[in-house]
Write a structure and sequence with these properties.
With about 180 residues, the protein is mostly beta strands. It contains 2 helices and 10 strands, in the order αββββββαββββ. The two termini are about 25 Å apart. It has a single domain, classed as Ganglioside GM2 activator (Ganglioside M2 Activator Protein, Chain: A, Distorted Sandwich), CATH 2.70.220.10. About 10% of the residues lie in helices and about 40% in strands. The strands form 2 sheets. Strands 1, 2, 5, 6, 8, 9 and 10 form a 7-stranded antiparallel sheet that branches. The chain has a 3-stranded antiparallel sheet with strand order 3-4-7, covered by helices on one side. It binds 2-acetamido-2-deoxy-beta-D-glucopyranose. The site of 2-acetamido-2-deoxy-beta-D-glucopyranose has 3 residues, from β4.
Amino acid sequence: MVAIKDLALSALLMSSALAFPFQNPFKIANLPKPGEKPVPGGSPVSICDSTQPQLLTLKELVMTPNPPERGANLTISGTGFLKETVDDGAYVDVDVSYGYIKLLHQTFDLCEEVSEVDLKCPVKAGAYEITKEVEIPAQVPPGKYVVYARAYTKDDDLIACITGSVEFTPNGVIKFDLDA
Ligand SMILES: *[C@@H]1O[C@H](CO)[C@@H](O)[C@H](O)[C@H]1NC(C)=O
C-alpha cells in the first residue's frame, strides 16, 4: 500500500499546481481553477471545492524549500482552524494522477493518518500549528502529478479539500503553476 504519509506529502506539496510556462509563454499570472483558492504562504497548495463549507480553514502553509526539490528534505508548516471536533470514522479520499494516467484512488482512515503530525482522534475544534519534515526521494519519477485530497467526517461532512499539482523535471527542478 502506498504510505499515506507520502500521499499526505504529495497532497500538500502537490496541492499546488505545476506549471507549463511553455504552453502559454504569454501567461502573466497564475489563475486558480474555478473553486480553487491558493492557501496564503506562497506554497503551491490550493483549497478546492471552495464553494462548499469546510470544517478546516487553512490559514497559511509555508514550504522550505519552495518549490520542493527531489532528493531533499521538505519542511511544511501550516496553521489552521478546525471548526468542529473530528472523531473516529473520519476518512480521506485521495486521487493522484500522473500525466494523463490515474495513478491512485484510495480512501484512508484520517484518524490513523493524523498521528503523522502527532495528533490523535478526537481532534478537537480549535487552532492548530503543525510542522512536518518529509524527505522527497531523489528517485521520484519525473513528470506531472496532480493530487486531490478530500477529507470527511464519519457523517460525510467535508473537512477539507486540498489540491495541487507538481512537475518533477528530469533535472530535479520543480515548477509550480496554479493553472495546472
Ligand atoms: C533529511 O532529514 C533526515 C532526518 O532529519 C536526515 O537523516 C536526512 O539525511 C535528511 N536528508 C537530506 C537529503 O538532507
